Every structure is written in structure tokens, then in C-alpha cells.
Amino acid sequence: MSAAIDFFCQIYFLLKRIIVVLQNIWTQIAAYVSVSVASVDVNEAHLFNVFDAMVELLEHIVIFNELTEQSNLSGKWPLYKKWLQTLVKSTETSQYCTNFEISGLQTSLDDIEAVISGNIFQIFLDSLLDTKKQMNLKDANVNYITQHSNAYIRKLMSCIETNQSNEYKNYEEPKHLVRLAAFICVLHKLGILLDGKLMKNALETLSRYQRVPLSRNVYWSPHAFIGKHAKSLVKAQDKPQDCLKQYHSSVEKINSSDLKTCRQLGTQIALWSINMERVFAAGPTGQLKTFSKLILLGQSYGEQVNSLIDGLIRRHLALSLPITKSVLFTIYKLIQYLQILQRTFATNQIVCIRFLSSLLQWQKQKIQHLLLLTKKNIVDLKLMQRKMSILSTLKLSERSIKGYPTKRRLTIVNLALSEFLGKDRVLPADKQKLFKSISLRANNLCRYQHNILGQFDSTSLMNNYNSLSLSDAALKEYIQQQQNPYLLQNIFGASNKLDKNLSLFKVSKDTQNECLTSQRIFDWEKEFLSNHLEFLLRVEALSHLLLSQDQPFTQNTIDYRNCINVSATENCGVYNILRDNLENYFTATFYNLTTIAPHDWKSYEKMRHLANKLLQLRPVDDYLPNQIIDQGIDVLQIMRNIHTFASSYAYNMNLQLFVEMQSRNKHLDIIGTRHVANSVQTHGTGIINTTVNFIYQFLRQKFYTFSTFLHDEHIKSRLLKEYRYHADHKHNKQAYPSYPYERAESLIKKIRKLGVSQNGETYMDLFRKVITQVGNTVGYVRLLQSGSKNANYRSRSFMSRFNSNFKRSEFQSLEETTEGSIREYEKSVEHLKECYSDCTNYFKLLMQGFQPFLCNPHNHHLKTFFLITPALIMNYIDYRVKEKLKMYKKDQLKCSLFEDGFAIGLIYILNMLNQLGEFHELDWSRTTTQQLNAERLKLKNILSTPDNNEQKRSPLKADVDEKLLQTVAITERHVNAYEQEYSLLYATLSSAEIFFQ
Question: Taking Cα atoms as reference points, which of 269, 332, 264, 327 lies closest to residue 302?
Fold first, then answer.
């Protein structure tokens, strides 16, 4: 809200200025009418231009009033104002702000509150009461204003009834409805009585329209608006008649008509652009008349396109209908037409300016000639005495028309011409019609930059574009259907211009930094072309494997190769070249695919050649070593995705391999010693140290998570309680031979009460996963070491024993080449010795790297880790039993037969924390054995309980006994499964201890 204060202040100043201007207009009208009644007659057409400017300002006030009234700003504003007032009263704020600044802030807040409360139009009407007192109108003056107002209302009603291609056009372009309703309310507030029959017709016309869309979620009712601001005009028994039902039934017919109009506009704009290029190529000599027609025709095309876009969207808003895909495609095509119009002028801007200057001179000369004819017609002296005002306006027009036609000068000329082009026939009817036509043409030519280059500055178009950009799926599909590079260029340019205009209204930094629609369009097209062309290259590269086709022309393949030739597009000062992006994509794709599957390097080399031959793209060659077919997953790929690898692969310590737990393919990837040896042989032994460094960084993150979990107050307090209990009872071996099973089970239940994740996992499950990932990482280090040794063995056909000293005879004279070979062999053997020496034991290196930090006295919360291991083991066993039960079920996406990473991770952490002895003191294996024996004893007691009334046993009792036997059998299998998992875990823990001795 604070970020929008500047925007609200600007809106307040704008609306305040509009209200002041409207008050001045009415004051000037009253003053002019009072003078005109005594001197000359007042023409209706003279006030029509003033009324046009007035109702345009009223339209802005009404629309902003409805926007704020139907928004939630008024509900949030009191809370924000209260918070700001509390902040102002604080002592810290008083040190930096003076009382004058605080009072100014309070005044500004009150002004802004008046703006966003939705009462700005009512405030304007109340201000007209003071204006009415200053006007001091007499009866004669009021009659003149009433006559002109009635005439102007008739003009607005004629626009509503005739300026529409279909019956419901006013829903799509409601500006005439808004202007008529606002103008009637203003006249009613000023006390200007209108014709009763005319007013009745106007109210009936307005009552036919309900739920008129003003914006995306803002609807306006003219009948309710007049009932609110001019209650005496609306009778209580009047009920508004809505024609939305008939509109709803005919919307498909209107949409089809608009689609047909869109296709016709496309053909017309294409012919127009061709004719414009011919005129530009021929030059201004003898082409002014043709250019004048074409430029005015281009402006009319732009207005038609904008009205079609606005109508299509407002129609669906009024009926609360979703915009269909075909309508969206039509709107995007219309936006492309706007870009074509602008691009035609922008590419020939210099020639166009020369044409325009010549045209303006020509039109000005015509106007001056008509002004001279008007002067000659006023020859009678009496006529001159009665028409002195006309002569003065003629002189004013001549002076204004001589200079450059700015907006102010054109307004003066229009007002001056309307003075004598009214009731008094100073000129013949044909000359007056010609005068109006030339004046209108000159106005359109002067507004060329606003009408053509400013088509994308339209407020309605920006609002519609902002709402359309939300439908990414339809826009993405439309972009992917474009096969013409010029159409793509147009949609890129149009979206870029609209994004620039919308960026002016972005208030917060988050909305400014979000991805623009033009950038998203470019990314979609790049992604689509990349995938499509990659598929094309793959099909061409594998065409020799396809069967011969009897009818090759039956397949409708779409060729997008021309889209590569799209020229550079500008986006926020950065130029994006589609060809370069595609070349970079194919370069990276071929490189990555060759890295992943180096044995298939010939296929990607062939695709690179086809990209150059078929698409004229030049991806950079990759200089990668070749590989064999049975290569396996590369070590570098695992190194880059070590976090994914540690969580998605299961480790088997005995077989020393990793197996993927979940895959979208029909097979699971396996990583063993042989695959690591292949990667080492491909990239060299230098990758081992780099991989271990990556693993060290990954373990740092996991140990941070590990420490954070144990440092949590809920966990730390429970572990300290267990630590005190263990310290008090561990010396009494008879009463406390091992850690109690009930306390570990109670700890799991307490931690489960702390909450679960979205997947239904408890904090204990997540903690177990962290330890498993640590163990998988340590197991991967072991696999790396074994793989590197395997690679060294395979690269040497001979190796001496470690204890023997390999020395060549110094006394024999050998050739220089032989001596060099012997020296290289000695280096190779020494390197192999280093691989097996203790200095490269990565387990010890990883322990030495983390042990000083974890054993720091400040990390006292880690001293109780061994007490959570019983609960962790119980959680792990439950997890393993459930995972193995999944093996017997179908359609299980994720299951694993083994997961020794937990045992290695647990022993690794206990060794680093020097808590392995404390863990053995718990004697948890003895506790679990006793618990399983107790479960079996319960089962035996259940089976050995005799039935005293065997003779009276009923069939129902026999059925119950059979169910009991089934339950006992299931429970026994369950206990056996738990016993097997505990045995496997304890064996794995004992084996893992050997690694860290």
C-alpha cells in the first residue's frame, strides 16, 4: 500500500484538476451565454465542441469512481491509515519528522481517502453547487443552455442508436452510455430543466443496458447510477429492462461476424501495405492525393482493429462468458495487424514525414482558399455589422492555420470554424461540407503520430492485453502455430511495445522484476522450435531405420524451418536473436548428449551435420573423448547432481553398487565399480579429487541439517531427559542391562506429535533420510576409490609388489628412448602405490575434515546423538519392512530391496562424534531380541489357552477360533520379518565399523 501512495497522489491531483477545469468550463459557458443573449445568437454547434471535451472528462471521473467503489481499497484503507497514524505517533518518527510534515501527511491521507472511497463523482456534483451560485444564470440564459443541452443529448442518443454495427455494440463500447448518464446528472445538479419527452427517451435507452463492463471485473449500471446521483429523475416503479438474454443468444452469431471481419481486415491491410510501399517507392511527386487517402485509410484500419479487440473482450465480460480459444487467436491476430500498420510507417518514417509536410501544406492552402471565399461572400454593410464576430473568427482561423498545426491551434480553429458553420448560411451547403471534410482531414493528418504510432498506448488495449497475457496456454499454442517469420516478428514487436507501456504502471518491485510477456513469448517459441527441430534432426538421422513408405505425401508435416530467419527482437534494451539461441541450444544439447552417452557420439555428429545442411545452423563442434557401449552413468554427471543421487539411489555394501529406487523407464540404472572405472579411464584420475571436494560440500549441507535438528528445543529437551535417565541407571547392570524398548518407542511417538510433512512423513523419517544420504555419499566415496583402483589395474599390464624396490641397472648403457620409457613406467607404479597408501584414504580425510567442528565443545547438543539411535533404528526397521512388503504388490513406483546407506551413515557419524562406545553401551541388539522373544511368547500363550467348554462349542465360536489362528499366523510372519531385518542391520553395522578403524 505504501508503494502506491505516489500513484494515488497523482490520481488525486489529476481528478482535482479535472474538477477545476469542469467548473471553469461551466463558468465560461454562463459568462458567454449572458453576453451572447444581449449581442448575437449562439449556435448549437459552437457549444458541441465544448460539451465533447466536458463529457470526455466526465467519463474519466465516472470510470475511476466505479473502479474504486467496486474494489477492496476502501476496506483496506482504514487499517493502513490507522497503522500509519500509530507509526507517526511513535517517538522514533518524531525525531525525523516535524509537526508541519506530519500535518501535511494527515491532510494528504484525507485527500487520498476521498479519492479511493468511490465518492469522487458525488464530490464533483457537490462542488457544482458553488459553481451554480457563481454562474448567476437568468431565465433567458438558462433557456439557451437548455436548448443546447437538449440538442447535445439528442446527438449522444443518436450515437447510441446509430453508431453500432449490431444491436449490442454499446456493451462493447460503452463510452456514449457513460457520457450520456454523466451529462444528465450534471445538468440535473445545475438545475437545468430538460425536455420531458427527451428525458424519458434517454432514461428508457439507458435502462436497457445493465452490467455494462468498464474493466476486467468492474460492471456498471446506468439506471442505478442515475438513481444514485439524480434520484428525482427515476421513478420508484421503474424497473430496468435488461437485454442481456437476447445478447447471450446471439453472441455466437456476432462472434462469427467479427471473425469474418477480422479476415477481411487482414486482406485489406495486406493490400494497403503493398500500396503504401509503392507510394513510398515512387516519391511525393504526383502521389499526394493517393498518399492522403492511404494514410487516412490506415488510421481507420487501426481504429477498427482496436474497436474489434475491445468489443470481443467486453462482450465476454458483459455476459460472464469464458473467452474461447478461437476468440483469443482472433485477438492475437488483430494485435499483429496493429504491428503491421505501425511497422509500415516506422520503416518509412523519413519519407512519410516528407509526405505529411506536403499534405499539411496542401490542406492548409485549401482551408485558406475557403476562408477567402467566405470573406468575399460578406460584402453587404448590414451583413458586416451583424457578422462582426464571424469576421473576427475568420481572422483568428487565418492566423492559427499559418503556424504548425499543434493541438491547441487545431482546437482554436475548430472552435472558430464552428462559429460560422452553423445556422447562418454564410457559405453554400456544398462549400460547408467541403470545409468540414478538409478540416477533419487536416485534424487526422496532424494526429497521425497519435493515431498510428500511439495505437499501442490505448488504455483499453493495455488493459485487455494484461488480462490476455494471463492465459499462457492459449498464447503459447498460438505462438507455436506460426510458421511465417514475419508474423512471428510482428507478435514479438507488439508484445514488446505493450510490455513497455505496462511497465509504466508497475508499482511494486516484484511486478517490475517478473518475466515480461514478450520474453515469455520468445522463450516459448525458442523452446518449441528447439524441440521440433531436434525431433526433425533425429528422424532424419535415423531415417535409414524406418520402413519405406508407399505414400510419402499422405503425411502432413509442418515445416518450421523458415521461422529460424526471424530478425533480432528487442526486449528491455536486450536484443534476442533466435538463430543464435537455436545454435547455442544445439551446441549444448549435442555436447551434453555426447557426454551422457559417449558411445553414441556418431549419431550426434550426424545430427550436427544435418543441422548445418538442412537448417543452415552452425553448432560448435565438441571435442570429447569417445567411449564404449557398456559405459554406464558418468561420474561427472553424478558429481553435478550429487544431491539427487544420494536421495534416489540405494547402496548395497556387500556388492558395492548403487541401484536406482524409482525410474520412469522399464529398467533401473545400476552403478558399480566397473562403471566408475570406465569414467576414470575416459576423463582421467584427476576427477577423483574434484568429486571428493563436491562430496565434502554436500556433506557440509547435510551436517548443517543434522545439527539443526538436534539443536531444536523439542528434540534437545527430550534427548537431555533421556541422557539423565541413562546416566542414572547405566551403572546398575542388573536392573538396567540395556536401553529400554519402551523409552525408544515413547520417543518416536513424542516426535510424531510434533507434526508431519505433506507426504505424511514425520521428523524422525526425515532425519533418517538425512543419515541415509550421508551414508550413501560415504559409500559413493568408497565406490570411487575402488573404481579408480580398478581403472589403474586395467591400464597396467604389469605391476611390481609394493614391498619390492624397482630399480633399473645403472651400470648398463641404454638408449635414450628406452630410459625415457623406464622413467615413465616408474612414475606410473609410484602413482599406483599412492592410490593404495594411507594418505589417500578418503574416509579418514572426510572424518578429519568434519571432526573438529562436530566435536567442538560449543556443539554440546550433539553429545546426546547416541540416545536417539535406538529410535532411529526402530524407524529404519519399520521402513524396511514396509518397503519389502511393496515388492509383492503391483504398480509400486518406488521400492528398494536394500538400503545399507543408513548403517554406514550411522557408524560414520558415531565415529566422528566419538560416541561409538556409548552406542555399544546401550546394547540395543539385546533389547530388540528380548522384545521379539516377548512377542513370540505372547503368541504361544494365545495358542495354548484351553477352551473349557469344548463340548458346547458353537459353529460361531469355531469361526472365531479360525480367525484367531489366521491373526496369529500373520503376526508371527510379521515378527519373523522384523527379526530378519534387525539381524541384517546389525551385521551391516558391524561390517561398517571396519571402514573407520
Answer: 269
Read off the amino acid at residue 702. K
Write the CB contacts of 502 (distance below 8 Å, at least 6 apart in sequence). 462, 465, 466
Closest CA to 333 of 308, 361, 359: 308
Residue type, 491: I
Angle at 878 between CA 875 and CA 883, to 5 degrees: 125
- Eight-state DSSP code of residue 450: I
Average pLDDT over residues 693-705: 90
- What residue type is assigned to position 664 of the chain? R
Query: Mind giving me the DSSP string for 734-773?
Result: TT-SS--HHHHHHHHHHHHTT-B-TTS-BHHHHHHHHHHH
Q: What is the pLDDT of residues 642-655, one digit of tens each?
A: 888 888 899 998 88
Contacts of 168 (CB under 8 A, 6+ apart): 243, 247, 250, 254, 315
Residue entry with cell 497522489: 9
The string of DSSP codes covering 938-956 is HHHHHHH---TTSTT--HH
Structural contact between residues 537 and 610, judged by C-beta atoms closer than 8 angstroms: yes
* pLDDT, position 903: 92
| pLDDT one-digit tens code per residue, 881-905 | 888 888 777 767 777 888 899 999 9
Measured distance CA(626)–CA(341) in Å, rounded: 55
User: Is there a contact between 174 and 225 (Cβ–Cβ < 8 Å)?
Assistant: no
**What per-residue confidence (pLDDT) applies to 870?**
92
Q: What is the SS3 string spanning 305-370?
A: HHHHHHHHHHHHHHHCCCCCHHHHHHHHHHHHHHHHHHHHHHHCHHHHHHHHHHHHHHHHHHHHHH
What is the rounded CA–CA span in Å between residue 288 and residue 284? 6
Residue 772: pLDDT over 90: yes
Question: Tens of pLDDT along 136-161?
Answer: 666 656 777 788 888 888 888 888 77
Nearest to 874 by CA among 978, 972, 977, 971: 978
> What residue type is 560 in one-letter code?
Y
Share of the chain above pLDDT 90, in %: 6
Residue of 9, 255, 227 lying closest to 110 (CA atoms): 9
Q: Residue 470 burial by CB count (10 A; 0-12/13-18/19+): exposed, middle or buried?
A: exposed
- Reduced to 3 states (helix: H, G, I; strand: E, B; else coil), residue 657 is strand
Closest C-alpha to 378, from 330, 412, 426: 426
Residue 368 pLDDT exceeds 80:
no
Evaluate if residue 822 carries a pLDDT over 70.
yes
Which pLDDT value is given to residue 40? 46
pLDDT one-digit tens code per residue, 950-968: 544 556 566 667 788 888 8
> Cβ neighbours of residue 238 under 8 Å, at least 6 residues apart?
203, 207, 223
Assign 93 a pLDDT band (cuts: 50, 70, 90).
low
- Report the pLDDT averaged over residues 271-289: 78
Q: Lowest mean pLDDT of 365-379, 419-433, 528-542, 697-711, name the range.
A: 419-433
Are residues 930 and 740 in contact, defined by beta-carbon separation less than 8 angstroms? no
3-state secondary structure 533-580: HHHHHHHHHCHHHCCCCCCHHHCCCCCCHHHHHCCCEEECCEEECHHH
Q: Which H or E element spans position 659?
A: strand 657-660
Q: How is 131-172 classified by DSSP, letter by letter?
A: HHHHH---HHHHHHHHHHHHHHHHHHHHHHHHS-SSTTHHHH
Angle between helices 388-402 and 407-420 (to 10 degrees): 150
The 10 Å CB-count burial string (b at 16+, else e) for 16-33 is bebbeebbebbeebbebb
Residue 638 pLDDT greater than 60, yes or no? yes
pLDDT in tens, 191-211: 777 777 888 888 888 877 777
CB hemisphere CA count around 989 (13 angstroms): 19
Backbone angles phi and psi of 574, in degrees to 5? -115, 130
